[in-house]
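Protocol step 4 of 5: obtain the predicted structure for the target chain.
Materials: sequence only (see below). No template structures provided, no constraints applied. The aim of this step is simply to have a reference model before the mutagenesis design in step 5. Sequence pasted as it appears in the construct record:
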Amino acid sequence: MKKYLLLGLVLSFGFLSAQEIHLTKGKVIDAMKVSDSLPGTYSLYLPSKFTTDKEWPLLFVFDMEGKSNRAIRYLSPVAEEEGYVLVAPDSLQDSVSVSKNINTLGKTYNAVTDILPIKKERIYTIGFSKGGQFASVVPVLVSGVAGAISCGAPLTSSSAINLKKPFYYIGISGKGDFNYLEMKNNNNFLNRLKFSNELLYFDGEHQWPPQEILSKALQMFTLSAMSKGLVDKDQGYIDSVFNETTQNIARLVSVKKLDKAEKQLQEAISTFRLHKDVAPLREERKKIRKDKIYKTLKRAEVNAIFKGRLLREDFNFYVEEDVYTYNFNNLGWWTHQVNEIEKSIKSPNSIQKQQGQRLKGYLEALVEDNLDIVFTEPELDNDALSFLWMLKTIVSPKDYDTYLKLISHSARGEDYGTSIFYLEELLKNGYTNVEKLYSLEYTALLKISPEYNAVIEKHLKKARYLIKEE
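Step 4 output (structure tokens):
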């Protein structure tokens, strides 16, 4: 059925059936239906300068954990600034097959391109964590996708690069992200293949990047499209982005952040080489790489990464060994390791701080991976489960749900001493939900015991079954 399009203060799409869809520019629109006859919804963002007399680049936003609304809202200021239409499918799930998610994406794509003037040579994808992994898979499996931005997630085996289906891959990682090293490996691997890619990083952990980094990524897509003739070359835009980039580099040099300046020079040379004379940038980069301050910073980072790799290997080995042997006596060693990591995180030295953040995140992910393995075994190993939950309280002391699971799990096995211990640890870490403490599964006898109530009274003054002496 043909759609008729009218443009006013809002966009109105009239159908022969007299049905109308009102699309406000400059605002995220939730729960757009894929079709009257097909299930599924998506969120949409149109820049405030959107018009129907030209075609627009489209950026698909992927979230595999049901938070697509939040993701598209975070990206909307960037899309507004850089002139991209955003679409976030609501039905993508990490728990279903890639092919099913691709099918969902295809239906959303058809719905969007049916009503909007989209530049089909300029379709891009972006996502964070598992959404980022899916974003990097889509161009491999779907022809015509020009680029992908993966935030905080390295390439996976399912996103095997096909040199016959090139696209522009941009990885973005916090330097404190536990995936940072893997994303550096990706960058080196793709460079060896001469596959078009960039790695952008920022001072942060496993999180959505700052909006200025996301803007830079979209600028790279736009400049790449100009160099390929997919969009008219806008010299004013090129000069503006170039000047902003060189000014930022000069600022970094002035405050002796030469490692960051060198990285941005590398990015600028790659981005602008087909648009500007980058010879001065090459000379500046050579000059910085010879500077003693730069060499000292790079040496410290290389040493930290090397030490981090060794520690990760140790953590891998000892987690596997301790789970297999139920080595509860080694929890003290793990406590020491986490304390050392926390010291690094609190260090005023940025390289040590980022190293600590990476190791902390890696340990958290390692424990979660091993818990997943335990839960997928045909027969649940209760001792292995107890050890991993105990280890998780050390690695993530503010994850209150783990303490509650341990209290319940230990009470089920009549190990009331362990339940009382982790109750006290839980309350020491700031937990205050008394109702939950008295409604835990398998604690019918435990919750009326004097010991259990004494701990709650000590920390919260709200014990229910406190025995009072006459």
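Step 4 remarks: The first helix runs from residue 68 to 82. Confidence is low (pLDDT under 50) at residues 1-19.
Proceed to step 5.
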